[in-house]
Recover the amino acids of this structure.
């Protein structure tokens, strides 16, 4: 019996990187995983990978910036598996960089939509579903930039700070309902997105690694272990927290 036997966990942004690693970890521990993401091919590959290992998984094409699609994602999870016990709200990413005064308003709104508003939509529909199942755990990926600043990344930083605030408010609202809500403060992670952007060159990868006191970035599997713990019933006294797995970045 695994920690997630008979449980259903929803994961947004689960088609690669951290989300995929968490999906695989939950499924390996007996859970049914529902993956919601925009990129259908990668999402279906994630699900096929889980199924080939004997796990249970379903992919639902979802643009997390569209409320009706997020509502449909949650409804599909409940319809297919009869319940929802938790979620890892992981979709996001920085798209716009530069000094505040140079940021276009539409670009600002786009970054806030994918990194903050998407989490609001997710919680809005996940909370009633998890309550109906008797309680569970909702984990929002706030990143380390949800608690510290970084020059030229103001849209992403502001949105991720908003995720921490949203997490804490929701946790207080739900404190006596059996639904707990936490934020994960993750540092750099060796994902396809990292390798194609910040880690695209040896110099860039070394620079990002140097920002962490441990002088490296995390593996997706390290993130998955931490996320699975927070989504499990072993953490029923943790709610409203912003918990770091960042190689010491936010301790500086």
């Amino acid at each position: 019996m695994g920690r997630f036997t008979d449980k259903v966990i929803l994961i947004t942004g689960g088609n690669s990187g951290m989300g995929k690693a968490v999906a695989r970890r939950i499924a390996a521990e007996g859970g049914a995983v529902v993956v919601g993401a925009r990129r259908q091919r990668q999402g279906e590959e994630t699900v096929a990978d889980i199924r080939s290992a004997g796990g249970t998984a379903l992919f639902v094409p979802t643009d997390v910036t569209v409320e009706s699609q997020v509502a449909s994602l949650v409804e599909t999870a409940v319809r297919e598996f009869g319940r929802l016990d938790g979620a890892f709200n992981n979709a996001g990413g920085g798209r716009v960089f530069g000094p505040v005064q140079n940021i276009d308003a539409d670009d600002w709104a786009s970054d806030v939509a994918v990194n903050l508003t998407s989490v609001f939509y997710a919680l809005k529909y996940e909370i009633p579903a998890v309550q109906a199942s008797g309680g569970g755990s909702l984990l929002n990926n706030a990143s380390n930039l949800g608690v510290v600043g970084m020059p030229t990344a103001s849209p992403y930083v502001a949105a991720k700070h908003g995720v921490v605030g949203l997490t804490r408010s929701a946790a207080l609202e739900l404190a006596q309902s059996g639904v707990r809500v936490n934020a994960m403060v993750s540092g750099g992670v060796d994902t396809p997105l990292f390798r194609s952007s910040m880690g695209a060159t040896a110099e860039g990868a070394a620079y990002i690694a140097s920002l962490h006191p441990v002088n490296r970035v995390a593996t997706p599997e390290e993130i998955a272990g931490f996320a699975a713990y927070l989504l499990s019933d072993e953490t029923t006294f943790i709610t409203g927290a912003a918990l770091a797995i960042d190689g010491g970045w936010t301790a500086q």
